[in-house]
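User: What would this chain look like folded?
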Amino acid sequence: MLGVVLLLVPPLAGWLAADQLAHPPRRPLQDYHHEFLSDPAAHGVVLKSFSCADGTPCLVCEPDPSGALGKRGQVIREQLTQKGLILPAPGSVAGSLVLVHGRRGRKEDYLLVAERFCAVGFRCILPDLPAHGDHPGVIAYYGVKEAHLPAQVLHEAAAKFGFNPQPAGIMGLSMGGAVSIRALADKDSPWRAAVLVSTFDSLDHVVRFQTSRWAGNWIGAVWSHLTGWCYQQQTHMQISEANSLALVPGLKCPVLVAHGSSDRVIPIACGRRLYDALPPGIEKRWVEIPGADHDNVLITDFPIYAEMAEWMLHHVPQ
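Assistant: Here's the prediction, encoded as structure tokens.
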């Protein structure tokens, strides 16, 4: 009996890990989401919601035209002013940003991010990715089959609410960074600038890193291989297809890559490889966030929002 159990453990572990990758548990709305949604004016924004033709749920977050600011908006404007930037007037819109959430995230996770970008003159569009939030899709493909979504939500939002889709930038966190890279690689890419935070070079590298961290190198390699095989059975996609490193040499717009120095989910080396592979002919910037892990990379004392906002302000507006 023990022998049978030992034979079953590796395949079961691989299947469960693959299921977590393909069908991440959906994150429910949190208290701070409800607070923001119930009173967006307190955050200096106006919220609109809609669904794309394919059912993708989105929020559009715009600066309050009265010029009112939330506390986070006040802070980021002070930080940027201290850096010598001349900012758009509060309440004005200088361009649009699509903010792409990470694995197990949802569009509402970016409301507090959008509050900051709105405060410095951007309209923010927040979609749910397939298998996340309220999206009807049930499988996560880590950018391979979601690459069209950022441009789609930008153009459908512009058509519905009557604004010019240009100029526009894109920001992606973790899995959202992989989606953003593929969106940037599209030949008809509308993006003037990008920010990629804590994202991976290739998904199979991350799976191998995680399995080895938990089970050691030899068992981890077996577990990683089984996870990849099981993911392919569940999704009909090889895990190795989620390879951002192969795409970044062809990117054409300015790119900022940020990563936490203590990331235990996607090691900082993954982010650095992405940055180093960016073509030499584009403007690019590397930002290391001291002490940040994967889950707190946007909430340390490091002024990452000021860095991201400055990058977008320099490159997105006409």
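The CA atoms of residues 37 and 78 lie 25 Å apart. If you want, I can go into more detail on any region.
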